[in-house]
Design brief:
Layout: E1 3-12, E2 21-28, E3 31-36, E4 42-47, E5 52-55, E6 57-59, E7 82-87, H1 102-113, H2 117-123, H3 131-137, E8 145-151, H4 152-160, H5 162-165, H6 172-187, E9 192-197, H7 216-223, E10 233-238, H8 248-262, E11 268-272, H9 281-294, E12 299-303, E13 308-312, H10 325-330, H11 335-342, H12 345-353, H13 369-375, H14 377-380, E14 385-386, H15 401-408, H16 412-420, H17 422-425, E15 429-434, H18 442-449, E16 453-455, H19 472-483, H20 491-505, E17 522-525, E18 531-532, E19 536-538, E20 547-549, E21 552-553, E22 555-560, E23 563-567, E24 570-571
Parallel strand pairs: 1-4, 1-5, 6-7, 7-8, 8-9, 9-10, 10-11, 11-12, 12-16
Antiparallel strand pairs: 1-2, 2-3, 5-17, 13-15, 14-15, 17-22, 18-21, 19-20, 22-23, 23-24
Helix pairs in contact: 4-6, 6-7, 7-8, 15-16, 19-20
Length: 583
């Protein structure tokens, strides 16, 4: 048998957690057929000498729900070794939907996930109504594979109309209809059901999301849709402070746990991070998840790879000067003209004397963020860092702009002003809001090392003007497996978490391991050269919308179904990826 492709001479990290080994991989008809000493001839040979070979990464928490309908590249995930993404996280998405509710769902996604409404309005084709119809509409060739959760917000609006937006209690009939819609979606291959229960999630008008106030009865009723299926998962995000009183954390976790119990043997995942408002909440979440597991209810914990926050800059969604009168006068100008004005000493002096007016903010990032920044600017500046050309996502407090300001004898606000003007106004400031209370990632290490942990929260496709955390997989390899001076995680375990573990969790049993019979979704990575570049803004969304992209060096090639979709970090233009119909 002549192979289609053979990968030779690499060090295989097979996704199982087993020790790495030297070997070859034979690929035929999009699948792995041989692993080890592969002697047969092949039409194409990939030299992996000096590189590691891993399964493609499965990212279980993204928001490409709109982008997937107009963009077949699914970048930036596709340029960071990801070969399968799961969309529809946090309860937001675009199906099911009635024609009269298109704008309503756009406003939800715009507010919750910081995706320009103009881009969504122009880019979405809306050639669907039901969830199975949506799945069929997006099932065309893409660079990588993708799967879908049924999002609670869209589902609630579809079944309840204005009552959903008014956050009315769902009736028994509403719940039965939502449950049946999830059943139909699962039959069509949906990966599961997601819900969002966060006060920080608001639509573009600042209103609470439809799913955020759903009661236990509703969540339990919908979760029962998974009964009788061999696949299907539940996903939730919550602040865990929705209830009133001193026991509000446990009250809210009880809601999530009841939903998870209703899912039976189907697992649930929930976002885990250290919140500034309650620095020890993450420890209580781990304890509750452990207790649930002992009772037979699987609640896994999605963990971000680093501090989670926002990028501040003159091109970004936020920066501290948005509300200053002098800046507002030039805000409409092109970047180069704004920078020229801001470099004028008289303009700088005048602006820094002013007080900021109120600024509306993105509902997903401590709204309104610019106001929060300015209320306690001296304190906040301790946690704001200049990202630079070689991004450091674990900076020391002494590297903050507060210390830079003190060294220069200027105010922290002036230090931010000057820093943002570097690189012709394209510099970005890193403001980690979650996971960085102690100015290190020790707590993240503890989270990632927990047996219930799953790597997640990359939000690929979302928060396009504030973050670029779709680069999490590359950071996992560089920072946690290679570069951190202490507390590193073995490479074999890091790869297992992003491949075997995530794929198995979402019931995709045909990927995530390098063994015969598996899909040939594979990365060839030069670990010595692997590095993250600085994020930069591009204007490639519909209607001229902008988003942050972060490239990486060191990925020699990424294969999807045996076809190379990237070479040397660049997309090849090949489109072997399709919708994954789970089960």
């Amino acid at each position: 048998m002549t192979l289609d492709t053979k990968i030779v001479g690499g060090t295989l990290v097979d996704g199982s957690g087993a020790e790495r080994f030297r070997g070859d991989i034979g690929i035929k008809d999009g699948k792995i057929v041989e692993v080890g000493d592969v002697a047969g001839a092949a039409d194409h040979v990939i030299d992996a000498e000096g590189a590691i070979v891993t399964p493609g990464f499965t990212d279980i928490h993204t928001h490409y729900d709109g982008q997937v309908s107009w963009d077949s590249d699914l970048a930036p995930s596709s340029i960071h070794g990801v070969t399968t993404v799961v969309m529809g996280s946090c309860g937001v998405g675009f199906a099911p939907v009635r024609p009269t509710d298109h704008e309503r769902l756009v406003e939800l996604m715009e507010g919750v996930e910081d995706i320009p409404g103009s881009a969504l309005a122009e880019g979405l084709t809306w050639n669907w109504e039901t969830f199975p119809q949506y799945m069929s509409a997006i099932d065309f060739p893409h660079a990588i594979n993708f799967a879908c959760h049924v999002p609670h917000d869209a589902l609630r609006v579809y079944m309840m109309g204005d009552r959903a937006v008014a956050n009315e209690v769902a009736t028994d009939e509403d719940i039965a209809n939502m449950r049946q819609a999830v059943v139909e979606a699962l039959k069509a291959g949906a990966v599961g059901f997601s819900t969002g229960r966060s006060d920080n999630h608001r639509d573009a008008a600042g209103q609470a999301t439809p799913a955020s106030e759903a009661n236990t009865r509703e969540l339990v009723g919908i979760a029962k849709a998974l009964e009788g299926f061999e696949h299907g998962v539940l996903q939730a995000v919550s602040d865990f402070d929705m209830a009133e009183g001193p026991d509000r954390f446990d009250t809210e976790f009880d809601v999530i746990e009841r939903m998870a119990e209703a899912g039976g043997s189907h697992p649930t995942s929930v976002s885990l991070m250290q919140r500034t408002q309650d620095p020890d909440q993450w420890k209580r979440m781990i304890a509750r998840a452990e207790a649930a597991s002992k009772k037979g209810t699987t609640i896994r914990l999605q963990v971000g790879a680093r501090g989670i926050g926002v990028m501040l800059g003159l091109e970004a969604t936020f920066h501290p000067f948005m509300g200053f009168p002098s800046y507002r006068k030039i805000a409409h100008l092109p970047l180069a003209e704004r920078v020229k004005q801001m470099r004028d000493p008289a303009f700088r002096e005048q602006l820094l004397k002013e007080k900021s007016g109120k600024v509306a903010g993105d509902g997903s990032a401590l709204p309104p963020l610019a106001d929060v920044l300015l209320e306690k600017i001296d304190f906040v500046s301790l946690s704001v860092f200049q990202l630079g050309d070689d991004p450091n996502y674990e900076p020391k407090m002494e590297e903050s702009l507060y210390y830079r300001a003190r060294e220069k004898g200027i105010t922290p606000l002036a230090a931010m002003y000057d820093a943002m003007l570097e690189k012709d106004g394209k510099e970005l400031l890193y403001f980690p809001i979650y996971n960085y209370a102690e100015f290190n990632l020790d707590n993240v290490h503890t989270m990632l090392s927990h047996p219930l942990a799953l790597p997640g929260l990359s939000d690929g496709g979302a928060h396009v003007g504030t973050i670029c955390d779709a680069s999490f997989p590359t950071f996992m390899l560089t920072h946690w497996a290679r570069d951190r001076s202490s507390g590193r995680i073995p490479l074999e375990r890091v790869v297992q978490m992003m491949t075997g573990d995530t794929s198995k969790f979402v019931c995709m049993h045909d990927r995530g391991l390098l063994k015969p019979g598996m899909r040939a979704d594979i990365n060839v990575i030069d670990m010595d050269k692997l590095r993250l570049e600085r994020p930069h803004m591009v204007r490639d969304l519909p209607a001229g919308g902008q988003r942050l992209i972060q490239n990486a060096q060191g990925y020699r090639t990424t294969l999807v179904g045996g076809t190379a979709v990237t070479k040397d970090g660049k997309l090849t233009g090949e489109k072997p990826g399709r919708l994954v119909r789970v089960g």
